Amino acid sequence: MAKRNTKVDVFTVDGVGEHKKKFLVELLRQMTLIRRFEEKAAQMYGLRKIGGFCHLYNGQEAVAVGAISALDLKHDYVLTAYRDHGHALAVGMEPNAIMAELYGKITGCSRGKGGSMHMFDAEKHFLGGNGIVGAQIPMATGTAFAQMYWKKVMGEKQTGVTLCFFGDGAIHQGAFHESLNLAAVWKLPVIYIVENNQFGMGTAVHRVSSVEDFEIKATGFDMPGMTIDGMNVIAVHDGIRKAREQAQADETPILIDIKTYRYKGHSMSDPAKYRTREQLEQFQQQDPILVLKATMIDAKMIDDDEYKKIDDDVKKVVNESVEFAENSDEPPVETMYEDIYA
Amino acid sequence: MAEISIRDALNQALDEEMARDERVFLLGEEVGEYNGAYKVSRGLLDKYGAPRVLDTPIAELGFTGLAVGAATVGLRPVVEWMTFNFALLALDQVINNAAKMRHMSGGQLNVPIVFRGPNGPAEYLSSQHSQALQSLFVHIPGLKVASYATPYDAKGILKSAIRDDNPVVLIESEMAYAWTGEVPDEEYTIPLGKADVKREGSDITLITYSKPLRMVLEAASELESMGVSAEVIDLRSLRPLDEQAIYASVRKTNRAVVIDESWPMASVGSHVAWLISRNCFDVLDAQVELVCSEDVPMPYNHRMELAVQPSVEKIIDASKRVLYME
Fold first, then answer.
1. What distance in Å separates residue B106's CA from the closest CA in chain A?
2. Cβ pair A185, A141 in contact under 8 A
3. Domain-embedded: residue B189
4. Is A114's Cβ below 8 Å from some Cβ in B?
5. Taking the model in full, what pTM does it have?
6. Which chain A positions have a beta carbon within 8 Å of B72's beta carbon?
7. Do the domain assignments include residue A112?
8. Residue B162 and residue A31: Cα distance in Å, rounded?
9. Which of A1, B56, B227, B255 is the Cys-Cys partner for B204 at CB 3.0 to 4.6 Å?
10. Among B157, B183, B209, residue at a domain's last position
11. pLDDT tens digit string along B279-320?
12. B6 and B144 both lie in a single domain
């Protein structure tokens, strides 16, 4: 069946834009860290050091890194779903605490109670790591409500915005539609980011969605919408920075469709037989890490040796996180009674 | 002491807590301009304005989840559900988010939030609007659940719930909003987790909570005229449950009847009856009886809907069985 899609403009950036080397090296480092961390997580999962559902972020690195680098986490908040390792690293959580959580150790960020799907860091304003599809969307609308409330009722001068990440699979939940309406009615500073990786588990977007370009849905809630090239980290950063300014200046929520692709299956148990090798390879040619690296080489900001050093450094960090997790203690069984009531 | 209704007691509690703490806000369907579907929030929009009192769209999942998010970063929302039947649409946010944030974050986050509204049968409302759904909430670790059937308890418990750092579900009853009773002029709170002896007695313990309290007290009076001294325990708090108060009474009377207006399977009443059987086995002189609703959806027909629910007669019959008076 033909889809009646309005043509949308995909925001992207050619070259390095206005960015300096130091900043771009940091984006490159973070994306490489996430890639190497996920590769290691997959390896440790294979060795049965990590159990349960484990959703990897390979291929989508530019989304979390580009978007979160545009934030001020003293004031802004970040919520995401269960594919959360990348966001946890991008907000600056320690790889050790994340790997230890994957191992279910007491030194994990959630004391071994959350696992892969539930990374949290209250101090860094990272509120999960949420396991029910779309259920973080009302909550994120609520943190944005608090940001409005602190300003309007409690007289706080500087309050931030909330970034709410979710997948294309979540967009058909009632929670999404109820939240966007509330955010529009109450003018809440929340940026809804569809990490559109083309598949809700094994179901291709076009099979279950009346539209494939989700920016269109913003119109129905009378809020600004935008589409961003999610394989280009500079485009994601610049787009979210612009959106953040607009959300604050105009007191408005914004819906952003970021087009990306996941290289691995939905979770570790998924061989991803619902897509073609050609499609995967097509996206891997636009790999966000390779794209940024090539862009920076073109701009003479970096050479292969420098990149190799970045890669070696993050591999070391990742290996240390495994060592840390291996050497950490199991949580004492009696801690099961803790962390339930304040 | 002033004689006021439960409705006004709840209104006073909301008003006092909103005045005391700027972080407290109220949201729900019709709580503002309409002054509340049951007038519990009367006058609060005029006094505090938006966004401290917020009329929401009819989107229980959305506004409940929004409140959970706001609580997670430090506000103290009071969510009014127009009825618990509609709260079913919001259950995911209560069970998967409010009750789990602290746990999943390894103790990093708290969710100080109150969910309240009328639960249980009223009259002539048929099956979608006459459900006592407390078991769904009481079942969940991470939630606190409490109830009240007097204005004194309503005010004191709501105030404590708003000050509590955990998610608290408060069970009210449409039929009981107009019930009156004395409330002190000076400020007070009632700690969550404490049952209350509503009537002292020595021959039998009648254990209940929420709206059935009134008919249980009536049954206790009738039993007195039959020469039976009944003690009435109002659980008030359902999670945590004040087990010691239950056992202390049963150890005195050696007999117990539990009265609960919800259905029998996996209910507060059936759990309390099991606890008594398990922990007071040596002192019981008879089986523990449970008076609850019939295991059927609520019919519209009035004679049938009364027959479904606990009644003074059913309570007295059950009491007679455990007293071997038949």
1. 4
2. no
3. no
4. yes
5. 0.96
6. 127, 139, 142-143
7. yes
8. 43
9. B255
10. B183
11. 999 999 999 999 999 999 999 999 999 999 999 999 999 999
12. yes
